[in-house]
Amino acid sequence: MKNLDALLELALKAGKEASKVLLEYKDKNTLWLKDDDSPVGLADIKSNEAISEILTSSDIAICSEENILSYEERKNLEYFWLIDPLDGTKSYAKKDKEYCVLIALIHKNTPMLSLIGDVENNAYYYAHAHTKVYKNNEILNLSLEQYEKVKNIALYSKNHDNNEDFFIQNKLEGIKVSSALKFVYLLEAKAGIYPRFGGPKAWDIAAGDFLVKQNGGIMQDFDKKALNYNSPDFKLPSFIAFAKDKFKLKGF
């Protein structure tokens, strides 16, 4: 059994170091397109290097958006790190503030520890399977009433397709947010629902999935199944997340 306390401390250290790098490179970043036409920049690479250097001491394999382990390399691994060193590359390039660092520890095909680093706000959200969710060394402790107030506020993306019919049919108010900071909005009771249509990649979602569930929320595909974070191509199905189980939409 892994020492999850020690690994969470390591993830927090890595997340903070990556944040320093991203702030340093914000005014000197350069972008290019990868083979799949997604953008990547010097900041992504430098952040990835900073995280990997720290996580290497865990002796656990590291899979990153910028250095992907093949399915053959990871299909039989009991544990591996899954990281996105800069989620929200487009926002970062525009000098917006909606970008973050994502680190998750995958056990077989499920996250059991994760961190979201909200770089611009110097806020770190993290937990492992035997803890509550922490924000900057303190347990995140919002009342159920706060989550109830936002149960019909849903998040949608600035940069991806959104299903407007879903919002209309369920009478939801929408808020546009970039990157995995949408999960922070759920954790902080700024929104109650996050539906995602289309296939994101596992490294974009794993950290948020774990934290939402660990905070008493729901994260599932539209067939009510848990997501698989060790599939051959890392592509995920459409999904929906609720900040709290108690306030999920009917039918879920």
TrEMBL record:
CDD domains: CysQ
Binding of Mg(2+), residues: E65, D84, L86, D87, D204
Name of the protein: 3'(2'),5-bisphosphonucleoside 3'(2')-phosphohydrolase
Highest taxon above the source species: Bacteria
Name of a matching Pfam family: Inositol_P
Reaction equations catalysed: adenosine 3',5'-bisphosphate + H2O = AMP + phosphate
Keyword Metal-binding in annotation: yes
A single BP term in Gene Ontology: phosphatidylinositol phosphate biosynthetic process
